Each structure stands twice: as C-alpha cells, then as structure tokens.
Amino acid sequence: MAPPSTFFSTFMAAILCSLSLSSASEMDILLSFKSSIRDPNNSLSSWNPTNAHPCNWTGIQCNPSSLSILSLDLHSLFLYGEFPLSVCQLPLSNLNLANNLFNQPLSLQLSQCHGLKTFNLSNNLLWGTLPDQLSLLKSMEVLDLSKNHFEGHIPYTLGNLQSLKVLNLANNLFTGKVPSIFGNFTELEVLDLSENQFLNSDMPLSFSGLHRLRNFFLQGSGFHGRVPGFFGDLQGLEVIDLSLNNFSGELPINLGSKTKLLFLDVSGNRLNGAIPSDICHGNTLIHLGLQSNSFTGSVPSSLEKCLTLEKLLIHNNALNGNFPVNIWSLPKIKLIRAENNRLSGFIPSSVSMATTLEQIQIDNNSFNGTIPSSLGKITTFYRLSASHNNFNGEIPEDLCNPDSSSLSIINLSRNSLSGRVPDMTNCKKLVSFSLAGNDLTGEIPNSLSSLPVLTYIDLSSNNLTGLIPPQLTNLKLALFNVSFNQLSGHVPPSLISGLPASFFQGNPGLCGPGLPDSCEDRQMPAKKHAGFFVPLCFVGGILMLFAGVIVLYASLRRMSCLPKNCNSISSPGVSELEVLSHLEEKNSIGAGNFGHVYRVQLPNGKFVVVKKLMKNFGERKLGKSLMAQLEKLQKIRHKNIAELLGFCYSEGTMFLVYDYFENGSLERWVCGGERNLGWDFTLRIAVGVARGLAHLHSISKDPILHRNIKASNVVLGIDFEPKIIDLGLNLIVGEADYQASMDSGMGSYCNRAPECGYSTMSTEQMDVYAFGVLLLELVTGKQAGLSESGEMVGIVKWVRGKVNTKGGAFKVLDPKFGDSFKLQMVGALQIALNCTTVTARMRPTMNEVVEELEHLDSQSHVGR
C-alpha cells in the first residue's frame, strides 16, 4: 500500500490534469468565439493563449473551486458579426451581450445553451420572430431581449420558462394580442412589455397569477379595455406603469389598498371616474402620475397622509373641489402639477415645510388667496406657475431667498393681483417673469435690469405707469410685452427694434419707431416765427428732388422694379441697391419652388446669394408680425445655420440675402457626381446639421421649426462646415403655398414624417424624422426617394426592408467609404432608424441625437 503522502500527490495530480484539460477545452471554445465576431475596439485583447487561464480574461467569471467558466459578460463593446453559438458548449449560467451590434435573427440552436439562467441581448440590432426553441431553456431566470427589432406575436411557448423572474421584451415591434401564458410565471418579479406600439391587446386575465410581481411596465404598447381589479390583490407590486395606452373606465377602488406601491403611472389614457381613496394606503408611494385622463371628483384627502410622496401629477383632467391643504407641506414633495382642472383652495404659509419642493404648476384652475411669502424660504424651489386663477393681494417682495434662491420661472398671469411689481433683486436665476392680466400699478422697477439671465418679461394688461427703464436694454430679452398699460415716454430703440410693435400697443403715452406716435413731433422745436423759411425750404427741396430723379433715372433704368422696403444688409459699406442691381440672368445659379437664386459680387469683392421669391406665391403685405419674424430669423447666430444678412420686400416679391458658400449644397456631394467626401467629413457634417437643428429647437420657449430639412437645404462652407438654409420660408410665402409645395414631389414626401399626412400642427419630432432621412442618405449614398423594381419607394422603407435580412445592416452602407468605418456607419444607421420611427413620441430629441453622433465622432479610431 502506498504511503498517504504518495496517494495524496497522485490524487492532486489527477485533479490538476483534469482541470488543465478542461481549461484547455474551454480556451479553445472562447478563441473560436473570438474568431467568429468582430472586435473593433480590441476589447478582447486579453483573450490570448499565452495569458494563463481564461478566468483572467476580460468579461469572464469562473467558479472559484472548479475554475469552470460560469459567466460571460461582454456588454457595450461594439461587437458584431455572426452570433457566437459556440459559447453554448460552455457551462454558462450568465451570458450578457447587451449594447452591441449583432444583426441577425435568434438562432434555432439556442437550445444548446440549456444551462443559462441569465440571458441578456438587449440593445442590439436583432430581428425576426422569437424562435420556439427559447422555451427549451428551462433554467432561465432572466431574459432580456429589449431594444431590438423583434416582430410577430409573442410566442405561447415562452410559457414553458416557468423559472423566469425577469422578462423584458420592451422596445420591439411585436404585434397582436398578448398570449394568456403568464399564469405559468409564478416566480416572475419584473415584466416589461413597454414601447411595443403595434400590440393590440386587452389585459390578459393570466396576469392575475403573478403573485410575486414587483415591477410591471406596459407603457406605450397599445393596450386597451379596463384596468382589472386584480392589481389590487397583487400585494408585492411596487411599480406599475400603464401610461400612454388606451385604457378606459375607472381605476379599481382597491388599487393601492393591499399593495405597497412606490410608483404608479396611468397617464395618457382615457380613464375617468374618481381617484381611488386608498391609492397611498401603504404610505410608500413616491410617484403618482394620473395626468392627461378624464378623472373627476376631488383630490382624495388621504393623500395628505402620503408622507413619502415626491411627485403628484394630476394635470389635464376634470378634477374639482378644494385641493387638500396639507399636501402642500408634505415633507418629501418635490413636484405638484395640477394645471387644467377645476380645483379651488389656497397655498398655505405652511408650504415652507416642504423643504424639497421644486415646482408648483396649477395654471387654469380657481385657486384663490394670496401668494405666501414663505415660498421664498424653500431653497430648492424654482418654478411657480399659477396663471388663470383667482389669486389676489400683493406679490411678496421676498419670493427669493437672498442667500440661496433657485427661482427661475414665475407665471402669475391672469389673476387679480394688485400693488406694485415687486423688487426681484434677489432672484438672480430668474429667467421668465410673467404678471400679465392683473391689476398692478406703479412703475416698472429698474431692478429687473440687474437680473443676469432674465429673458422673458410679460407685464401686459395691467395699470402700470411711468417710463420704460432704459437699463432693460442691457438684458438679452426674447420677449418684453408691456402692452395695454398706461406707460409713457420714449421706448428705448434697441427694445423696439427687436420686438413686435404689438408688445407696446395700448399705451397712448408711448412713442417710438413703428408706434402710432413716432416721437418725431415731440422732438420738433416750436418756432412760431419760422414761416418765412418754410416756402424757401419747400422750393429748394423740390428742385433737389427733381435733379435727383433725373440722375437716378439715368443710372437705374434697369432697376425700376427694385423693392423699396429693405432692411440693412450686414456687410459694411454695402447698400441694398448695390446687391439687388445685379439680379441678372447671367448671375443666376439655380431655381427653386418659389423663385430664382443669384450669386452677386459686392464692391468689396465678397460674394453673396440672393434668393428672389416670386410674387405669384401670394400678394402678402409685409406686416409688423412678418417683419418681426424676419428680424428674429436675422438675429439667429450659430455656426451651423446660414446667417440671413438682409431682406427686401416689394409687392409680393421677397429678396433674401445670404453669404455665398463655394462648396454648394450637400445634395451636390451626397447624390450628385461630385461625391468624394470621406466618412470623417460626412460624419462631421451630420453632427453639424444636428447641432444647428438642436439650437433652433431650444432657442426660446417657442422652438423654431425648419419643416423641410433635406440635403438641398444644407450648404457647405469652405471647410465643409454645414449651414442650414431656407429657414422660415412658410412665413414669407404663406402657409397655403408652402404646404402645397411640400406636398409635391417624391423627394419632399419621403422626407416627411408619417404624421404630416393628418396632423395640422408642425412639431420638433417632424424635424427629427427629416433629419433621420438625411442621415440615411449620408450613410447609404441613396436619395430620399429611390427606385426599387421600377417603383419609387422612400429610403426609410427601403432601409428597414434591407436590415431585416441576414447582415442587412452592413449591406445598405455606402461602399464608397470602404470597410474601415463600418462600425461607425452602423451606429449612425441605428441613430437614423431611431429618428425615423413611426411613433413620434419615441423619436429622440435633437439634443439627444447630437450627443449620440458626437459619441460616434469621438470613436473615430473604432473600426479602422
């Protein structure tokens, strides 16, 4: 018999040999995995045979005792290529490939990964239907397939995954009714079916069996019918989001009575009836979103005891009665939104006990009483919006804390407030100040001019007297409305030049350019004995005028039709006539839907472009409103928006003057014969256009919409810096003619969002869609309207049809850029597809688009 030490040594050697064989086999599988995918960032550089055991490799976690590989976590590494089924040969319990660029259907061979407990493929480019083979992964506890392009029905066979604790199918393209399989998921804690806008389903009764459910998300997924009463019996529920669906009827009266809800959002449905009184019975509720429904009755007084409540959103309903007074002083309340109801009551002085309060929005109700000065004690408070109510008394002077005030928006318009406009010296963060439609008296305080970020002032329809403080010209005001008061004196010139005259009307004592009283009469000295000089001056003036006419007739015969109503062109030493006298056929460089475009060389050698918008598009008068809009456009300054240098108008014909850009329009480079831009320049152009649009959308409270973003409306500077042009054409030619032009032509049609066909209102989301189309043109090299099998189709439909095939995302990329930038291009393609999604609310904002494109641009080394 061998000694014990010999036996132990032999035994350990056998184990180490076994481990070595096992690790070698697993290493081969992982290296095979690596070779089957693309790793543009070289994130898997540690996956090297010389690098000891695979347990030390990036993204790998091993069993500490057996050293077998348990987890493979490779999320957010920009990986793409064929889905690596070889990993199913490993004894994995966790596989995380989220936030990558895999672009293919789920393989039918996934059943080989039978040991998986966690499977995360979220935020890729996966498509097709879910295979029934998923149901064979019986050990699965977490399945996350969200943010892909999966379509078709949710398969019944998923019901076989009875160990599931988390099921996330959000942000896909599933259709039809939700199957009655959820009674099988007795262990399910999180269910997310949100943002599947093509679903059309009522609430399956099988949901009532989800007794362990904690988080339930259905927002924006086409659900309808009544909200079932079984929600009140699911005692583990903490989060319910049913927002943006078509639920109707009343909420179950037991909702919240047995559960300890933290978050409830049923906003944007067609719910009615009363708010359940026990909705915060567990005293755990943090967020209550009931807005944009048709709820009636009063706000339940039980909410006064909801000490955990942070956000109360009940706006846009038909609620009435007194607002419970103690809600104002809840210890954790941050946001109260109750606008557009029929509520009454008052804001108590005890509101200062709500030390974390940030916003009050109660516009368009019947609240009364005075505005409590104790609001000034809340250092986090930044918005008070209570217009169209019955508040009275004086506005407190100490609304802003002198030590630390966050107040930036005050809107108390259309109340019954009296007294003077308060001294707001302590409100250093005040941006918007609206007191219109009250009974305020006295003068406009000079102290407003000391507020560094004050941009919007509306004091109209009061009884203010005195002068307009000239110090206000130091502010960068986008709005200053003092109409219908009793003000007098001169309007500071810089104020009236940048604002509509209507903002000063109704003040008989005011004078200034563009007002009924131009101030000229007030400046003329009374010379009672100057009668002798008047005839002499009259005769001399007639002679000078006659001589001038002769000279002008000789030199300007060919300019007899030039406009007489011009503003100044921002080029030193250049007059409007010098520019417009060169509008000859030889200087024409093109024609558009509304007229001709000319290139004109100024005396200083500089070239400008003049757009002549022909009068057959409406005999519109250059009214004050249109003049104000044009002057607003002329003040826009951004490196990615072409500056409007000047404009002239005469008898229905408008002349717009811009800088000339030698590289022409983007259309010439993208779809014309001169395309030789590299991907670096192309991506930089996309970023620039996105920045320009984002600036327009955030320029003021009322964002400026372009409404026709396309390649021909982007010009390129000498360094290929893009400039957006043709902003505000609808204002000039008239809405009817502009709309008629937009409706003509396949190219224009393909740039337009689907909702343009039925919506009467233009939105930022429509601009986002048009930008997405432009980005698709840049990535694919195709035009917005292209020919497919002899028929014209839009680029969005064409791309979506192509990407839903194997490797399709790479097949639509413009081959002229080569293979070095494919990763970035696929990233840009995904951004474009997000911008052109059918549902407007799901599109990103332009600011979000800018962030995503800038991130791509910063990864310029990726994929090379």
From TrEMBL:
Lineage: superkingdom: Eukaryota
Pfam families: LRR_1, LRR_8, LRRNT_2, PK_Tyr_Ser-Thr
Domain Protein kinase: 583-856
Entry membrane topology: Single-pass type I membrane protein
Compartment list: Cell membrane; Membrane
Gene3D superfamilies membership: Phosphorylase Kinase, domain 1, Ribonuclease Inhibitor, Transferase(Phosphotransferase) domain 1
Organism of derivation: Amborella trichopoda
One MF term in the entry's GO annotations: protein kinase activity
Secretion signal, residue range per the UniProt entry: 1-24
The protein's name: Protein kinase domain-containing protein
Lineage of the organism: Eukaryota, Viridiplantae, Streptophyta, Embryophyta, Tracheophyta
Annotated ATP binding sites: K612
Keyword annotations: ATP-binding, Glycoprotein, Leucine-rich repeat, Membrane, Nucleotide-binding, Receptor, Repeat, Signal, Transferase, Transmembrane, Transmembrane helix
Segments crossing the lipid bilayer: 532-554
